[in-house]
Amino acid sequence: MTQPTDIRRDGTRPLLLDLFSCAGGAAMGYARAGFDVRGCDIAARPNYPFPYHRGDALTYLAHLITTGEIRRFAFVHASPPCQNKCTLTVGTNRSQGWGGTHEDLVAPTRELLDATGLPYVIEQPNGRAEIRKDLTLCGELFGLGVIRHRNFELGGWSIEQPAHRPHRGRVRGWRHGRFYDGPYVAAYGNGGGKPTVAELQGAMGIDWTDVREELTEAIPPAYSEHIGRAALAALAPAWEVAA
Fold first, then answer.
1. Mind listing the UniProt keywords for this protein, alphabetically (predicted)?
2. What totals of helices (H) and strands (E) does the chain contain, helices first?
3. Which one of 142, 165, 186, 194 is least enclosed by Cβ atoms within 10 Å?
4. 180 neighbors 122 (Cβ within 8 angstroms)
5. Do 26 and 77 contact (CB within 8 A), yes or no?
6. Number of structural domains the chain divides into
7. Which one, of 109, 116, 105, 107, lies nearest residue 156 by Cα?
8. Comparing C-alpha atoms, which of 159, 112, 152, 113 is closest to residue 130?
9. Residue range 134-149, pLDDT digits in tens
10. Would the CA dihedral through 34, 11, 155, 114 be positive or negative?
11. Taking 70 as the threshold, does the pLDDT of residue 95 lie above it?
């Protein structure tokens, strides 16, 4: 496995590359865990809370590998789009016109991540079978106001799967002409009794963007903070030895 060249015993925060970064839900969690984060997204993301490169994530990653700049980084997180295999695509999200052309970028992302030699995470929602489900997280594990199951494939390292906590009730909203109340909000789309932006922010633990699309696409920072702390515990000793 490639060892980053700038991880030192002097307390330097390991540098993390956040690909397909959107508005920075994952980035904020990793920063809270102890990483220094740099993002990359093809869209303008003025709300992204850390430095980022605007451009195609895979092109950028290939450039970093070719030039050797990837060795600045200690860890990579990627949330590649794969809406063409997602059940939500044929429902609310497609009706809202979000996401444009639906592409499956999981396989090429994995291929490039393997080429970096660095430990990494690939994140995908439930309903997509393109990744190994090495870890599955749910909002209830962190006391959030969303269920929002997310699956994570881990490359070059591992983490213990926490026990799934039973949900406390239903997701609030309309189903087949009937309104159901519950302790969770539906963090997708924009109809059928969906939450307000303020409710989404509170449920997700995100307060630096008020753009609905960014909120509905985001990973709650609690998820990546959990992953980031585990990664630092597992990998930091090796980084320190290599420094």
1. Methyltransferase, Transferase
2. 7, 9
3. 165
4. no
5. yes
6. 1
7. 116
8. 152
9. 999 999 999 999 999 9
10. positive
11. no
Task: State the Cα–Cα distance between residues 28 and 236, nearest whole angstrom.
Answer: 19
Residue 139 lies in a domain: yes
- CB count within 10 Å of CB 153 equals 20
Write the Ramachandran bin of 90: left for phi over 0, alpha for psi from -120 to 50, otherwise beta.
Answer: alpha
Residue 180 placed within a domain:
no
**For position 122, which CATH number holds?**
3.40.50.150
Take residue 115 and report the two structure tokens written for it. Answer: 């080429």
Provide the token pair at 137: 């997280």
What tokens appear for 216 in the block? Answer: 């509905």
Cβ-in-10-Å burial (0-12, 13-18, 19+) of 146 comes to: buried
* 8 domain-assigned: no
Phi, psi dihedral angles at 130 (to 5 degrees): -80, -15
Q: How far apart are the C-alpha atoms of 123 and 82, rounded to whole Å? A: 10
What is the four-CA torsion angle of 55, 67, 75, 85, rounded to 10 degrees? Answer: 40
E strand or H helix at 137 = strand 135-137
pLDDT value at residue 189? 78
β partners of residue 152: 123, 135
- Report H helices in 85-196: 92-96, 106-116
**Degrees, nearest 5: CA angle 11-13-19:** 170
Number of neighbours of residue 38 by Cβ within 10 angstroms: 18
Mean pLDDT of 38-45: 97
Q: Residue 219 is encoded by which pair of tokens? A: 């990973």
Please, which pLDDT band fits residue 232 given cuts at 50, 70 and 90?
very high
**Domain boundaries, position 73:** 15-160+220-242
The token pair that represents 223 in the structure block: 């998820």
Residue 178 lies in a domain: no
